[in-house]
Amino acid sequence: MTQFDELGRMYDDSAELPWRKHMEMFTVLKLMGDLTDAAVLDIGCGSGAYARAIRARGAKRVLALDESEGMIAHALARERDERLGIEYLCGPLPEAERGRFDIVLAVYVLPYATTVEQLSAMCQSAFTALRPGGRFITLVLHPHSTDEPDYYRRYGFRLFSDHPEVDGAPVTLELQLGDHRVTVSARYWTPHTVEEAMRTAGFRTAVWHRHDVDPDAVAEHGEEYWRPYLDRPHAAIIECGKAGDAKAATAPGGPEVTG
Predict the structure, then answer these.
(1) Which of 1, 101, 154, 170 is the most exposed place for a label (fewest CB within 10 A)?
(2) Would you say which domain of life the source belongs to (predicted)?
């Protein structure tokens, strides 16, 4: 059993939080671009929120993986009701599926590596799953986040750590949804270590993208609602490509690069 097994419904609800729906998911889906006829692998799919959004944007095939039996059971229950044509599997990518995907997405997966070896293995798994020219898009803890516990409270979560920002430092995220609260443990990895793991796996230069906000959401909530997060985001969005893709290799690495 993992720390996520009983959190499926809460993770569905978290996808409706303004910062996730109108900023994080908005940015990630825009970065993914036209998904018509694309084959997409969602690693660490959780409750399936991204998998469903990707399928709705026209992806020909969506395969979603998670190590949590509870998360996959929840996602499969929704799939039985909604019949979107998404495939869900509990566990690692089957060997027969290697090299078959145009995009691999891993949202908040790398932060759960507890060693450099695990971090590198995660990047290697994404690389192996991609076709030549494919792209890997992932979210990690941002080096410019803040450890002030209440800084992100307005967005529905708290982030705190008693450790310096060094490789493998434990970080706690506390998510608040109505009367429900869940605590998730993760790890911080420096940009150098993340990029080295990607290079070792075979990826080209990593591009760090800043978050965008849906203009309609800016109009609804006001610019000042979004400003604290944009100034000190807790997550960084990284894109890198497998050989044959020029798009993800045109900008230098580092957390200052914008999309």
Answers:
(1) 1
(2) Bacteria
